[in-house]
Design brief:
The chain is of the alpha/beta class and about 325 residues long. It folds into two domains: about 5-180, Rossmann fold (3-Layer(aba) Sandwich); about 190-310, Rossmann fold (3-Layer(aba) Sandwich). Helices cover about 40% and strands about 20% of the residues. The protein is built from nine helices and twelve strands. It has helices at about 40-50, 70-80, 95-100, 135-155, 160-185, 200-210, 225-240, 255-265, 290-305; strands at about 5-10, 10-15, 30-35, 55, 80-85, 105-110, 120, 130, 195-200, 210-215, 245, 270-275. A hairpin with a 5-residue loop joins strand 7 and strand 8 (about 130). Helix 1 (about 40-50) crosses helix 4 (about 135-155). The protein is globular, with a radius of gyration of 22 Å. The relative contact order is 0.11.
Length: about 325
């Protein structure tokens, strides 16, 4: 029976040992890491460095709550040497697949690296865990530490390299966390209200003292009704809130109905911009990595809530 050990030589290699085959027949290939979301793939890539193949199944604009694995995805998962996913039921329709694959290879939920008392629960949904952990940058730094620790165990030969990269990236995340706090603090508390299509920003709200409202629940699987729209219209009009936000991975139409409802009540509210919620931006753009995505979101939120450049935002 063979035992697989993860090793590296310049690039990662997968070396099969303990077999009776001659050394010349030993198989070596680049280690393949597959991640469900772009945020996780970006974190892993920062830990392993540029010489390791890291693939994200869900690209820009993709909603993980509704995502269904394609045949190509199943092939990538079956060929992967290591799989990282979010957990907390973010990948709702893929959980059974990931659990099944986990019986034969390393499949790691990055949310397992977070202290349980930091995971938000929605008591009105039967103590459902909120999976949107990446919106508190300090929590995401803990996720990166957990990813690094797992890679150090799996590839001890390069453990020091992982530890160094993990520490460096976590320093960047800690700096980003403080920058977000400072930027949001420039918005007067009464105006610090974030209204989006679905309730993805609760971690963000708690970490940075922002009141958060979503038309839908934490998952876009949940449906909204006319009462949800009218309740949100009443809240926005009553609080004189001047901006709401659409998301790249969620249709804009529901919030456009809210904007129209506010106008009918005599209160003008604009769509203050588009936020990256469950997916990052296009690769190669500033928003195509986690640090840039967070910065773009914060700038959009701060400018809209402070009423800056309203002439250039969409209605």
């Amino acid at each position: 029976m063979c035992t697989k050990i993860f090793l590296s030589s310049g690039l990662f290699a997968l070396l099969v040992v303990g077999c009776q085959a001659p050394a010349a027949e030993e198989s070596t290939s680049r280690l393949r890491i597959v991640c469900t979301t772009g945020m996780i793939a970006d974190a892993v890539a920062n830990v392993v460095g540029p010489d390791v193949m890291v693939t994200a199944l869900m690209g820009p604009g993709v909603d993980p709550h509704l995502y269904k694995a394609s045949q190509g995805d199943l092939q990538q998962l079956s060929q992967a040497d290591l799989i990282f996913y979010n957990g907390l039921h973010l990948e709702g329709k893929m959980v059974e697949i990931l659990e099944k694959i986990g019986s034969t290879k390393s499949v790691i939920a990055v949310s397992d690296g977070i202290s349980r008392d930091r995971i938000l629960k929605l008591t009105h949904l039967g103590d459902t865990n909120d999976p949107h952990i990446w919106f508190d940058v300090s929590i995401w730094a803990d996720v990166v530490a957990y990813i690094g620790a797992n890679l150090e165990k799996l590839d001890t030969l390069h453990a020091a390299d992982y530890a160094q990269r993990t520490a460096a990236y976590r320093d960047s995340l800690h700096q980003l966390h403080e920058w977000v706090r400072q930027e949001l603090s420039t918005v007067p508390p009464a105006q610090r209200v974030l209204i989006t299509a679905h309730d993805a920003f609760s971690y963000f709200g708690k970490a940075y003292e922002v009141e958060v409202r979503g038309l839908q629940g934490i998952s876009t699987v949940s449906e909204y009704g006319l009462k949800d729209v009218s309740d949100l219209v009443e809240f926005i009009s009553g609080r004189k809130i001047n901006a709401v936000f659409v998301e790249t991975s969620v249709p804009a139409k529901p919030l456009e109905a809210v904007v129209e409802g506010c106008a009918q009540r005599g209160h003008e509210v604009v769509i203050g911009g588009t936020l990256y919620s469950d997916a990052m931006g296009q690769a190669g753009t500033p928003e195509g990595d986690y640090l840039g995505m967070v910065r773009a979101n914060v700038r959009t939120i701060v400018n809209a809530l402070k009423g800056i450049d309203h002439a250039n935002v969409s209605h």
